[in-house]
């Protein structure tokens, strides 16, 4: 793995922990985002797991920048030893200019794949067929954060390199906001997937809006972490 994405990510994580009002909680957030246990991190640092636990809980004085850098490097070392999937995921998001709490994953595929394959990976229920049945990438978006924090111009960047993609909005309750947002975005993506609800809970006007704008619409209620893990297995 090239040094630049890792180094950029290391600086980003270390800065976020250092500037946080609760450094321990922020450290815990990144550790769990990387799916690394306290024990595994402690072993990488050659300390007892209670040291990591004490930092995260605030029982130990907030770590200095040197300790934070060691912890961040340990997280990245563990991920690299596992294949580096988390580093690549965050590097893609950061290179697109988004905060990781807005865009949770952004991928471009080497070749287009059938939309049905994407649905299978995330356990989606199709609601409306779109004009296109293949995608060349996907973007996973925290719906509330995106809608409240992104300008219309920034919204276009969610498409990455191509509109031939699926936009997957997480944390959706009924689907009004993402579907209305799609009305002001031109061109539209090939597919929109709403995460966090069932077909019965979907806003009644969502299917008709998707049909008007020509994109496929689906819903999924899978566990978010498991879904993101399965998305990493796509080509």
From TrEMBL:
<dbReference type="InterPro" id="IPR017271">
    <property type="entry name" value="Tscrpt_reg_HTH_MJ1545_prd"/>
</dbReference>
<dbReference type="InterPro" id="IPR001387">
    <property type="entry name" value="Cro/C1-type_HTH"/>
</dbReference>
<dbReference type="Pfam" id="PF13560">
    <property type="entry name" value="HTH_31"/>
</dbReference>
<protein>
    <submittedName>
        <fullName>XRE family transcriptional regulator</fullName>
    </submittedName>
</protein>
<dbReference type="InterPro" id="IPR010982">
    <property type="entry name" value="Lambda_DNA-bd_dom_sf"/>
</dbReference>
<feature type="domain" description="HTH cro/C1-type">
    <location>
        <begin position="27"/>
        <end position="81"/>
    </location>
</feature>
<dbReference type="GO" id="GO:0003677">
    <property type="term" value="F:DNA binding"/>
</dbReference>
């Amino acid at each position: 793995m090239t040094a630049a994405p890792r180094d950029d990510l290391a600086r980003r994580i270390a800065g976020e922990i250092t500037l946080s009002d609760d450094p321990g909680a922020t450290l815990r957030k990144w550790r769990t985002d990387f799916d690394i246990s306290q024990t595994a991190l402690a072993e990488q640092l050659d300390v007892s797991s209670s040291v990591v636990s004490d930092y995260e809980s605030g029982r130990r004085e907030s770590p200095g920048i040197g300790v934070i850098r060691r912890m961040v490097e340990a997280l990245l070392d563990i991920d690299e030893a596992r294949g580096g999937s988390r580093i690549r995921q965050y590097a893609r998001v950061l290179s697109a200019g988004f905060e990781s709490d807005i865009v949770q994953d952004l991928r471009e595929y080497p070749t287009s794949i059938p939309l049905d394959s994407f649905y299978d990976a995330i356990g989606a229920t199709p609601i409306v067929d779109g004009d296109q049945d293949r995608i060349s990438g996907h973007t996973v978006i925290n719906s509330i954060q995106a809608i409240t924090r992104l300008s219309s111009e920034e919204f276009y960047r969610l498409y990455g390199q191509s509109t031939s993609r699926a936009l997957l909005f997480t944390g959706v309750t009924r689907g009004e906001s993402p579907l209305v947002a799609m009305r002001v975005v031109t061109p539209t993506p090939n597919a929109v997937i709403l995460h966090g609800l069932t077909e019965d809970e979907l806003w009644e006007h969502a299917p008709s809006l998707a049909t008007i704008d020509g994109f496929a619409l689906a819903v999924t209620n899978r566990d978010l972490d498991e879904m993101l893990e399965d998305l990493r297995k796509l080509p």
